[in-house]
Amino acid sequence: MLHKDYLLEVIAQFVEVVTEALGLAHRKHDPTAVQEAEEAVAGLLDLDAQVALKLSPDSLVTMMLLSGIGDSLAEYVTYTLRELGDVYEEMGDAQTAALRRDQAVAVADSFGVDPDVVPEEFQQG
């Protein structure tokens, strides 16, 4: 029960940070907001942001599998990476956009998540 409560709290904090950061990133193409969203993903996976988001899609999935909580987090990671891909595309960085989208697809495929579904917590904002 404590593990579930802890996980729910971590997810709630993640959703709050990412919702604000992605909003700013989409509206203003703010690089700081993009970085905050990326750091939130890395933090959720207990990884260093500079390393985590440079990983190949398959390596990112491996790190999620090793974390032991990848199943619980996959839909949030998939959604955030997909949104970051859109922001990078809007900002003219096609290479990073493609990497984020490929990472999102790899996570979705590996954990059986529909990459086009917005997690309920992100719909409430």
Separate helix tally = 7
**What class would the helix/strand composition place it in?**
mainly alpha
What percent of the residues sit in helical stretches (DSSP H or I)? over 70%
> How many β-strands, per DSSP?
0
Query: Uncertain runs with pLDDT below 50, 5 residues or more?
Result: none
- What is the string of helix and strand elements? HHHHHHH
What is the radius of gyration computed over CA atoms, rounded to a whole number of angstroms?
13 Å
How far from one another are the termini?
27 Å
- Tertiary shape: globular
Percent strand equals: under 5%
Average residue pLDDT: 92
Main sheet: strands, sense, barrel: none
Short description:
The chain is mainly α. It contains seven helices and no strands.
Describe the model.
- The chain is an all-alpha fold and 125 residues long.
- α2 packs antiparallel against α5.
- The radius of gyration is 13 Å and the shape is globular.
- The mean pLDDT is 92.
- It contains seven helices and no strands.
List the helices and strands and how they pair.
Elements: H1 2-28, H2 31-44, H3 49-52, H4 57-67, H5 70-90, H6 94-111, H7 120-123
Helix pairs in contact: 1-2, 1-5, 2-5, 4-6, 5-6
